[in-house]
Design a protein that fits this description.
By secondary structure, the protein is an alpha+beta fold. It is 31% helix and 28% strand. The protein has 2 domains: 17-197 and 382-393, Gcn5-related N-acetyltransferase (GNAT) (Aminopeptidase, 3-Layer(aba) Sandwich), CATH 3.40.630.30; 211-371, Aminopeptidase (3-Layer(aba) Sandwich). It has 10 helices and 15 strands. The chain is globular and about 70 Å long.
Length: 394
């Protein structure tokens, strides 16, 4: 799940300090925790009776306006957790992580916190974020990450209280988070009644292991099995003439394994506009290839691949989906093979391709296993009713 200002000793038994680069209205001397709570940028930053570990500093962060130094400090925590979970490089690069965080904030309700130790080093982050509209806007995503050296000091519980409070204030009713299977976060989440609903896999393809003759066979086979379809490509934004049918086919992701409170999304052109604008702001180049039925002109399947200009060795496999009415004809394999074949020709620096799969998504996992994607991390998707979690947290 910049150096802080010097602060005087807080009243009572609170041993840490509260700071904010975007402070609007505080109730006491700069840096002090007040007996009830301190307001940071209109968000309750410290619940009544909650203390911070000695000499630590809590900062509420507006990620859209915060300086790069603050967001780099948040990244410093996130990358520690990533490297703990995934020991082998490449890892998500700093500038890319910061750009994506800022871009996501443009389309989400969110609240974020950063914790530093007494020397000013970042040691923990907390994030609440949620869709502003849509069928699943009742759901809040919570992330609490604490660096290994700073654990078991109450910081994680403090951040969980803060992100839960932010989710409540935003009117959400269900919380969702992810933990590494059997990792320390799993025990922490279980302690607070955030239960696992399904398993997710982070799968990695090392391009050097890719059987290129398999790609050729899948492409050749598609000429026989999927002759009533054709491939349509674009880079970046979907062309205007295809936006309606592309938004429609993206709704097929509703058929992927989902959590119990999921409500099928109606994916509109407006949502596509919002999503693509966020991707463009993040600065990630991406390709899309779709299978189009020749007779109707409808898109019936697609796959996406994004690249990292900061870390050319890394690519990200996005969604792959096929309309249920058009399955069983090798379309999923066709679009994946076509995408990888192009990547091999035009992005020769790519060494690994990472993708997420639901553990129960048998069809897509089977395709990825054939391509030699291998599991490098297993995580659990967890949920809790927000009201119940808030009661347990006190």
């Amino acid at each position: 799940m910049s150096a802080p200002p010097e602060a005087s000793e807080p009243p009572g038994n609170a041993k840490g300090t509260v700071s904010s680069a975007v402070r609007k209205d505080t109730k006491g001397p700069e840096g002090q925790v007040m007996p009830e709570c301190t307001q940071l940028d209109g968000v309750q930053a410290l619940p009544p009776g909650q203390t911070l570990p000695e000499s630590t500093v809590l900062q509420a962060v507006d990620v859209r306006s915060a300086g790069d130094d603050v967001l780099r400090s948040m990244f410093a925590v996130a990358t520690q957790i990533e490297r703990e979970d995934v020991p082998e490089p490449p890892w998500v690069p700093e500038l890319e992580w910061v750009a994506e965080l800022r871009a996501d904030a443009g389309i989400q309700d969110r609240a974020d916190w950063l914790v530093r130790d007494g020397a000013g080093a970042p040691v923990a982050v907390g994030h609440f974020y949620a869709s502003r509209s849509g069928e699943n806007s009742h759901r809040a995503k919570l992330v609490v990450q604490v660096a290994p050296a700073a654990r078991r000091r109450g910081t994680g519980t403090l951040l969980l209280r803060l992100v839960t409070g932010a989710a409540h204030d935003a009117g959400r009713t269900v919380v969702q988070t992810w933990t590494t299977a059997a990792g320390p976060g799993a025990a922490f989440a279980t302690r607070w009644g955030i239960t696992a609903e399904d398993e997710l896999e982070l799968n990695r393809l090392r391009v050097a292991r890719l059987d290129r003759t398999l790609i050729d066979r899948w492409l050749e086979r598609a000429k026989e099995r999927a002759e009533q379809y054709e491939l349509v490509w674009w880079d970046g934004r979907c062309p205007d003439a295809l936006r309606s049918t592309y938004a429609e086919v993206r709704q097929v992701m509703n058929t992927a394994p989902q959590v119990s409170d999921h409500v099928d999304e109606v994916f509109t052109v407006d949502k596509l506009d919002e999503l693509e604008a966020s991707w463009a702001e993040a600065g990630l180049p991406w390709w899309t290839v779709c299978a189009r039925q020749r007779q109707s002109g409808r898109l019936v399947g697609y796959t996406e691949l994004a690249f990292s200009d900061e870390e050319p060795a890394l690519a990200y496999q996005g969604d792959t989906a096929v309309d249920p009415l058009h399955r069983g004809q090798g379309i999923g394999r066709w679009v994946k093979a076509a995408m990888l074949e192009r990547m091999l020709r035009e992005r020769r620096a790519v060494e690994v391709v990472d993708t997420d799969n639901a553990g129960s998504g048998d069809a897509m996992i089977a395709i990825n296993r054939h391509l030699d994607f291998r599991v490098i991390l297993r995580t659990e998707r967890r949920r809790a009713d927000l009201a119940d979690l808030a009661t347990r947290l006190g």
